[in-house]
Amino acid sequence: MKKLLLVGLLQACFRFTGPAAALHPVPRDSTPRLRDCDSVAGCVGSVRITYLGVAGFLIATDSDVIMTAPSFSHPNLLAVTTPLWPIHGDSEAVDRELRRLLGADFDMLPRVHSILVGHAHYDHLMDVPLLARRYVPRARIYGSLTTKRTLMGDDFLRAHADRIDSLMPADSVIATAWRVGRWIYSPSRRMRFMAMRSSHAPNWWFMTLAPCYEKEDRKTLPRTGWGWCRGEPVSYVIDLVDGRGRPMFRMFYQDAASRPTDVVLPPFAAQDQRRVDLAIVCAGNFNKVEEYPTFLLAGLRPTFVILAHWEDFFQEQGESPTPVRWTDTRELATRLDLLGAARWITPVPGGRVVVEY
Fold it and tell me: Which helix (H) or strand (E) holds 353?
């Protein structure tokens, strides 16, 4: 294993990292407003999307606020890739970055009713226990069985295990291309989401960090980057619905580049069918999957695309993020441009996008 890791890292060192400018990052002080509604009938609502960095978002409407799992603790690359080097959530970094990135919207955190977790690697799950304990007291946490078993290693969440929902394929909760999963509704009934089976591209060469599963509840949280098992990756379909439960605006979210077979929407019933209005896709390791995200976007045909997980999360970023290491940003931009019809946006952490629908 150590020899394979060394080979993967050496190979990665010779890959090209492109400039951030190729992705046209939108600065924090600019809030694009996008219209996804008929010019005659007009818009009926809006959704405010704030990028928290890595794969974290705060998604807010008048009635609902949800979060996708963010990452503010950034151990360096050597610490993450060394199997025995301890890493841990940084409470000072979490507090500082939440306040810096959200600004006045920091007061919105108590309204968060759900945290959606796509997979259980450290850069998606390590800060969730602190968030659940201090900042989002109402939020339920949704993720894979490995996600729940990992979080049982935190004393607070073990004592509040009813706040964690594991999405298990055996329960038909998770959708596939041939099977509809279960809709999970917000307290207001104006938002719902469904998990879809997904996958995770290799991190180096053909290797993936911690490609393991937790077989039982942990007694403590993992100590190293290799201890945070990936688990069973999922994506999410997130709907804003009207008073009769019909989708008015549909989002697709994933936090890892996935195989083309894992991005086909399930066979929704007629009343649940709708095109994807906004897709949130992952820049990291995009070139480890054939034609990612081209196949994904060609299948979903979204009106808008937000690019996430694009900045280097092995260091503090500040106001001018650099791309995640060894990402060919020019090639990624070329693939996104191939779709033509979809407008794609790359927000910097703390950046906001408002979509009217």
Answer: strand 352-356
Q: Which residue has the tokens 């190293």?
A: 224
- Taking alpha carbons only, the member of 36, 16, 22, 102 closest to residue 354 is 36
For residues 201 and 188, what is the distance between their CA atoms, to the nearest angstrom?
Answer: 35
Q: How confident is the model over 95-116, as a mean pLDDT?
A: 96
Structure tokens at 143: 């993720």
Let me know if residue 18 belongs to a domain.
Answer: no
Q: Hey, what amino acid is at 139?
A: A
Per the structure, the complete domain to which residue 142 belongs is given by 2-8+23-356
Percentage of the chain lying above the pLDDT 70 cut: 93
Alpha helices in the chain (DSSP H): 2-13, 77-81, 91-102, 122-125, 128-134, 145-151, 155-159, 294-300, 329-337
The structural domain count of the chain equals: 1
| CA–CA dist 243, 188 (Å, integer) | 10
pLDDT tens-digit series, residues 206-223: 778 899 999 999 999 999
CATH of residue 90's domain is 3.60.15.10
Is 14 within a domain?
no
Ramachandran quadrant class, 283 (left: phi over 0; alpha: psi -120 to 50; beta: rest): alpha
For residue 116, being part of any structural domain is answered with yes
> Distances from the Cα of 81 to the Cαs of 54, 87, 257, 274, in angstroms?
18, 11, 20, 42
Query: How far, in Å, are 25, 90, 92, 102, 259 from residue 99 at the CA level?
Result: 21, 14, 11, 5, 36
User: What is the CB neighbour count within 10 angstroms for residue 132?
Assistant: 23
pTM of the predicted model as reported, rounded to 2 decimal places? 0.93
Q: Rounded CA gap, 247 and 277, in Å?
A: 11
Structure tokens at 245: 């439960």
Q: What mean pLDDT is predicted for residues 35-47?
A: 83
Tens digit of each residue's pLDDT (9 = 90 or more) over 159-205: 999 999 998 766 678 999 999 999 999 999 999 999 999 999 988 76
Q: Could you tell me if residue 193 is inside a domain?
A: yes
